[in-house]
Amino acid sequence: MRTALTRGGVGVAALAVAASTVFIASPASAAPGEGTLTVTWFEDRYTDGIYDTTPTNPAGEKDQLRQSGSYLYLQTADDAWFGAPQRADGSYVFPDVPIGEADLYVVDPTGTNQNAFWDATEGAPEFMPQSNVSFTDGTFLHEDGTRTTGLSGPSSSAGRLTVNIAEEATTTRLVGMAGIGANAEVTVDGERTTGVAELSFLSNGTALPATEWDTGRFFAARGTDLAKLVPGEIGIAVDVDPRRYRIESVTAGSNIDTTLSIPLTQTDGVWTMETSALVRYFDSVVFKVALAPVALTDLTVTYFADNVLDGVYDPTLESSTGYSDEKRTTDYLYLHDSQGQWWATTANADGDFVFTDVPAGAATLHLTVPDPYVSTSVWDATDVTSLTEVRPVPQAPITFTGGTYLAPDGTEAPIIATDRLTAAVPLNLVEGEDAVEAGLASADQSAVVVDASGEPVTGATVELLANGTPLESTLLDGVYYSANLAAGVYGVRVTAPAGFQVTSVRALSALTGEELIVEGPAAAPTGVWTVSSDQLARNFDGVEWEVAVAALPVVIPGDGAQPGTGAGTGTAGSVKGSLASTGADAIGASIAGGSALLLLLAGAAALLIRRRAAQ
């Protein structure tokens, strides 16, 4: 690629021919080492980057060939200069010029950088950079095939396109032209403001700097000049300090028609539009960025292991084995704020996690789950007043880039996260200060149904519960298991097999074997029995349920017993340990029932004999 000679100032495109003009006849055909370049230059009035005379812009105009009497210029590989006029068919032809790499110059009709030029020959439009073009001793190529030497080029701004002229062939190029620009206004609460946002414009994915020429007013620039853009996609990227401002809206309009609203597409802080929505091919898009001050808060999070399993943070209480609630201090905590920003922090000297000066409003706190291979449950303990209010929050991995780490010492640093398993707590942060407490536990339950001999019984229906909600459980060798439990009221719902009833329910601590206080009916074919988690030894303890069933006793008609009653029945209440007799008492009841049955059969036989004798 060659660089054209330049002169100070800008001139108008002109043909300067020396006094001793020489006319040279064109050869009949290209000689070896020569080729032809044919150029079509069009005004992209529909502003879509391609030459198509079918669609019309909002002003009713269609693409058209450039009709102005302008010349195009070519600097060939051997540093020779040529000029060509527009022909009757609208093309510009450089016949029989040296082959190889050459630079085509398309002079801006205004003489300055008021238009953008691009190669529209094929594929995506390719921007043609602009520079001043000036030369002497060039050759002018007339349409009739004659040539004039002594050509001087203009001292004007021109778009430059590098082409490769093929030998004994015609190389074609399609060049588009438009005068599209991009501007922006930034306001805070409706007032144009400076220093509140970082902007950059985009032209078909290429970033261009935003130059502020007035308070809160910007234009897309190339160097120090107003940039003219290749049609296609124009966008604006907006970056604000999320702890100072929020982006309320970004809109786009026309500089020509201020009533026109242009649709935008937003992705990751970039708003884009199609230039074909503009009124004319020398229109400019005007982006309006509306900001508002952000209310800030300091969020303090207490993340604790609930060793007392009472659902709240109270380090003054102890479990049955002497353990108290403990703050977790080894994790990262993350916050996804109302502006879509990610924040992270670690515990301070007090064992708390403090997110300083983050936006108030809707947010999600993400608490790191200590070990994804251990069943763990996390809950928002901030407003919990009883165990039955504990509700575990969902867990899922998070991935983000561009986050900010807020160190306890007040410094900041970039941070990312990849597939980090967290528990998500939705929040609505208030301005000023806010606080959250979050508990963690990994308790579990198991249950087995046995007969009087202690052998597992089949046919029973068993459901493990937490705060009345059925839990997913697995059945292995007659034992039902459920893990990943928060603090709460644990329970078991049992329906005995047909002909049986539940005669006793026991609950033991999995860690200590201590028998727990059970709430539920004394004996029944079906029922729900519960224990409170604060009876357990630690936050990773568990409840082992042992449910005993026995055959329903035989009821003899006429013995005064009411249907559905008999040995082993009772009323609901609070008991510890066995809720009804088993073992010897049950055996005695069975013997008594059998004796009564024999007496009944003997009486029936005697009555039958007497009746037959009477006949």
Could you please describe the fold and organization of this structure?
By secondary structure, the chain is mainly beta. It has 4 domains: 156 residues, no CATH class; 113 residues, Immunoglobulins (Immunoglobulin-like, Sandwich); 146 residues, Immunoglobulin-like (Sandwich); 141 residues, Immunoglobulin-like (Sandwich), CATH 2.60.40. 5% of the residues lie in helices and 48% in strands. The strands form 8 sheets. Strands 15, 16, 17, 18, 19, 20, 21, 22, 23, 24, 25 and 26 form a 12-stranded mixed sheet that branches. An 8-stranded mixed sheet has the order 1-12-11-5-4-7-13-10, with no helix packed on it. Strands 2, 3, 6, 8, 9 and 14 form a 6-stranded mixed sheet that branches. A hairpin with a 2-residue loop joins strand 38 and strand 39. Keywords: Membrane, Signal, Transmembrane, Transmembrane helix. InterPro entries: Ig-like_fold. This is Alpha-amylase.
